[in-house]
DNA sequence: TCTGGGGTCCTAGGACCC
DNA sequence: TCTGGGGTCCTAGGACCC
């Protein structure tokens, strides 16, 4: 439980995280608009650099629209291995402040400062947070915005207040005055639907919401949401910082470049996604009882079908079998744009797994490999050997670089890294044997 | 403008049990 | 013959977050 009189909760939020890592590792992109996200026809923007935001580009926007707004930005597919590594470094630095760190995503976390700093006051909190920001910058080369307050709610709002590269400490005594004039949409958990509902009944600001009638809110938003929101508006948020939350579900899904109608295609893709889910379950030592299939149709309507087994499983075959049965009962004739598989109701191990270890299940490897699918065509771009924009590569003659673009049998590479000047570009045949995929470049904090 | 992929939490109704 | 109340599990859908 957090003490409402002590500024003991810190929220950290890396600035334009994915785009910032790209600019760090690719000198030619520094100071330029960079957009990371889906680069295909149905992709959306994951992160836009601040230079790209000037053009009106933002998260969740269709990449096609972003391209119209700023055709000259760099559009990159993302390098999650690199992002995970930077995230791990930042979370390690957070753990030096307190053992209680609650990651919300790769680029965000809460830290319970009070748990490690008895007698914390506003000045001490500011010093701790400032030192942390400097440490992140030195270790990763990135800027992080930080909010410190008496609760998760206010710390999170604070970290967003003066982004990027900002530190905002909200003294508990000033909290109410800060929140009152803010839009209800500022509250995490109030999205488009809830926001519109509140505004429609005249509740535009947090101050107005604080004076609302609880029964009315509960009628409008449901028990949990109604009561929580009223408490938040009144500055009441006792949620503790919780480290190590256990996963509740594992899933994989894919949006196709072109809607699919062929059941054999769909079943095959479902099976491959089941393989990925099973592999991730196994890696985490988990298994689950409920298998879910998600289908998004041509018109974006989405349905889920689930089935709970009498036992927990992490078997790719069993997940695929059940998912396939569920899919068989769904009408796909009009076209499916997205298909997904998930497993929930997780537990740490299962009898079946223990038995399987003694007597391994047949690993039908001949069909689980990612061979090209049979009927090749209407799946969108011709299956180029898979050079993705932004990808790290190595050339036997030119050294490390990254893919700037590919197509028509060619791939263009820029040869540079986090500690080089802006590099030169060269174009190769896309099957050039001298060119190979590479891991992320190493960022050296000691480099001058 | 035409909407990703990975998640979390909540609600509501029906089955089933005591 | 008609009718209880509460609890748990399951399924489906939806809002929201990064």
UniProtKB/TrEMBL annotation:
Which part of the chain is the UmuC domain? 9-191
Q: Which InterPro entries match?
A: DNA/RNA_pol_sf, DNA_pol_Y-fam_lit_finger_sf, DNA_pol_Y-fam_little_finger, DNA_polymerase-Y, DNApol_IV, IMS_HHH_1, Rev_trsase/Diguanyl_cyclase, UmuC
Provide the E.C. number(s) assigned to this enzyme.
2.7.7.7
Please note every region of biased composition (Acidic residues): 361-373
Any idea which UniProt keywords this protein has?
Cytoplasm, DNA damage, DNA repair, DNA replication, DNA-binding, DNA-directed DNA polymerase, Magnesium, Metal-binding, Mutator protein, Nucleotidyltransferase, Transferase
List where in the cell it is found.
Answer: Cytoplasm
What remark does the entry make about the cofactor? Binds 2 magnesium ions per subunit.
Q: Where is the composition biased (Gly residues)?
A: 398-408
Which GO terms fall under molecular function for this chain's record? DNA-directed DNA polymerase activity
- Record site: Substrate discrimination: 18
- Give the first-level EC class, as a single word: transferase
Q: Which domain of life is it from?
A: Bacteria
Biological role = Poorly processive, error-prone DNA polymerase involved in untargeted mutagenesis. Copies undamaged DNA at stalled replication forks, which arise in vivo from mismatched or misaligned primer ends. These misaligned primers can be extended by PolIV. Exhibits no 3'-5' exonuclease (proofreading) activity. May be involved in translesional synthesis, in conjunction with the beta clamp from PolIII.
Q: What binding partners and quaternary form does the record give?
A: Monomer.
- Could you identify this protein by its name? DNA polymerase IV
Q: What organism is this sequence from?
A: Kineococcus halophytocola
Taxonomic lineage per UniProt?
Bacteria, Bacillati, Actinomycetota, Actinomycetes, Kineosporiales
- The gene designation is dinB
